[in-house]
Structure formats: structure tokens, C-alpha cells
Amino acid sequence: MKLQSRKPKEDPEINLISLIDVALLLVIFFMLSSTFMQEGRLKIELPQASLAPVGKQKADPIVVSVTQSGVYRVNDRELINNSADTLRAAILEVAGADRNKPVTVRADARSTHQSVVSAMDVLGKLGFTRINIATVEDSAPAKK
Fold this sequence. Notes:
Oligomer: single chain
Shape: rod-shaped
Strand order of the largest sheet: 3-2-1-4-5
Distance between the termini: 83 Å
CATH class of the domain at 62-133: Alpha Beta
Largest sheet: 5 strands, mixed
CATH architecture of the domain at 62-133: 2-Layer Sandwich
Structural class: alpha/beta
Order of helices and strands: HEEEHEHE
């Protein structure tokens, strides 16, 4: 004789809430246990743009120019070569011990990015924090 259960059979279900909890805990664990690498950056305090008119600066700024061919000039004086050591020596000669002087980097639009970054790197290593990049105002209106 065959006995039958009087309880109706329930379909088995997977509890998704506990699976979501476990998945979330795994994501949090991997985020906390992983190491995030930060790319090297120039340690330069970049200036903030403002709409206010620029007043007369107290100290004469140092102007580092980069030509299209990558030739450096410090205060309109061309350097004998394009090495970082020569640029460093010329900047030290002009600035003396004052690292609070404003420095303006003027680069030709066709100069290499590496030349500009090298100049800014030299300035950052020397301890200058008031570094500006000279630009011209775009004649085309900005699109929004």
C-alpha cells in the first residue's frame, strides 16, 4: 500500500537576498584588500582661473618661454642648450633664493608637450609654487 503525504509539495526556491548579500560582501572585501597605485605627478600648486582683472604684481615674474623647436628662454634670454640642468641654473640665477616669485611658462602652441612638462618639472623641483601658464583668449565663443 502506498502512503501519500497530505501536504502539497512546494517548489524549491533559491533565496536571492542572501546571494546578493554575499556578493556585496565579496565586492567590499576585494575593494578594501586591493592596493590602488597613484601615478606620479608633478608637485606643483596650479593656479586657479578667475574673472577678476589681474592687478599689478609686487614681484617681477620670471618668464620661461619654450619655442616651437623646444629652445628654452628665461626672461627673454636664450639658453645655450635645452638640458634641464641649464634651465635649472638659469632659473636659479634669476630667482636667487626667492621661491615665492611668480613664474609664467609661455610655450608655443606647436612646441612639444615634453618640453613644457620638463620646464614645469624643473620649477617644481626647485620649490616654486606660483606657476602660471600663459595662454591667449580663444576668439571662438564657447559652445554649451
